[in-house]
Amino acid sequence: MGIGGKGMRQTLAAAALFLVSAHAAAQAPAPSREAVLKAAREIVAAAGICAVITIDETGQPQARAIDIFQPDDQFVVWFATNPASRKVAHLTANPRLTVYCYDPATTSYVTVLGRARLVNDPAEKQKRWKKSFAAFWPDRGTGYLLVEVTPARVEVSSPSRGVGNDPVTWAPHAVAFDGVRSR
């Protein structure tokens, strides 16, 4: 099955944007750490819903949609989940995870590779409570759990924000973190 008229135009437009961006990236100096993280924050805000990828008991990556909080100064991100969910079981066995946020308007993405910490502290849960959570977790006390994600590495691809990929390998720009929790 081929791509129809509108789909073909969108595909060609995206390919042209990528080629122009790749050429510009090859000519431009590498963006600073601050510029990469600024772009990353903008993408997270624009994405809204992101994906979290955990590793199950067989070693198979498992992805699902999450609503993350905006990153802090050290790019630590948080999200809420059901304490009985598969992702909690996965993170208990293996705290390594990936959070992926995609902004379709600019075909930009952020990948946060890091470690999770399950947080059931009532004060922290109260601090991070959103009104929209009530639809999923009517019991604020035991009905939900927080996950704190401390980044080891943040990768960003956003040519429209001046953070293009490597023109040869297509590798995104990356920022490494020392793994120290923000507090």
Structure commentary:
By secondary structure, the chain is of the alpha+beta class. Helix content is 28%, strand content 31%. The chain contains 4 helices and 7 strands; from the N terminus they run ααβββαββαββ. Strands 1, 2, 3, 4, 5, 6 and 7 form a 7-stranded antiparallel beta sheet that branches.
Task: From the structure above, extract its key features.
183 residues; Pnp Oxidase, Chain A; 4 helices; 7 strands; globular
Summarize the structure in short.
This protein is of the alpha+beta class. It has helices at 5-27, 33-47, 86-93, 122-127; strands at 49-55, 61-67, 77-81, 96-103, 108-119, 145-157, 173-176.
Q: Tell me what portion of residues adopts beta-strand conformation.
A: 25-35%
Estimate the helix proportion, in percent.
Answer: 25-40%
Number of helices: 4
What is the terminal-to-terminal distance? Answer: 53 Å
For the sheet with most strands, the description reads: 7 strands, antiparallel
Rg from C-alpha positions?
Answer: 18 Å
CATH-derived topology:
Pnp Oxidase, Chain A
Which CATH-level-2 architecture?
Roll
| Low-confidence sequence ranges | none
Can you count the beta strands?
7
CATH class: Mainly Beta
Shape: globular
Order of helices and strands: HHEEEHEEHEE
Helix vs. strand class: alpha+beta
